[in-house]
Amino acid sequence: MLKAAPDAGLTKIKKAVMNLSAEKKMEVLTLLEEDLFAVRFKSLLTELRGSAKKYPLTTEDIAREVETIRQKRYEGTN
After folding, report:
1. Which ranges of the chain have pLDDT less than 70?
2. How many domains, the chain?
3. What is the largest CA-CA distance in the chain?
4. What is the CA radius of gyration of the chain?
């Protein structure tokens, strides 16, 4: 286990990763993606919820947009 300062350990890890083959780097990437999925997903949800509060949509706005898209698709098929 690394006993030096946390940043020194991180520097060693970065150097070690840089020396890995592309295949091993992909394994590390996959491990990190799986480990951090919940954190990244929560961050995305927070961002989306913030955007929804900043630009709220009413049911009428959504219905209008759906009808516009349906009309464009209908006109495109005939």
Report:
1. 1-6, 78
2. 1
3. 71
4. 23
Tally the residues of the chain: 78
pLDDT score, position 76: 82
Q: CA-CA distances (angstroms) from residue 45 to 17, 31, 61?
A: 30, 22, 22
For residues 61 and 75, give the distance between their C-alpha atoms in angstroms, rounded to a whole number: 21
Write out the two tokens for 20. Answer: 């890995």
What is the rounded (10 degree) CA torsion for 61, 42, 11, 14?
A: -70
Q: Which residue has the tokens 């919940």?
A: 38
Place of tokens 């799986």: 34
Residue type, 40: R
In a domain, 1, yes or no: no
Read off the pTM.
0.54
Range of the domain at 53: 22-77
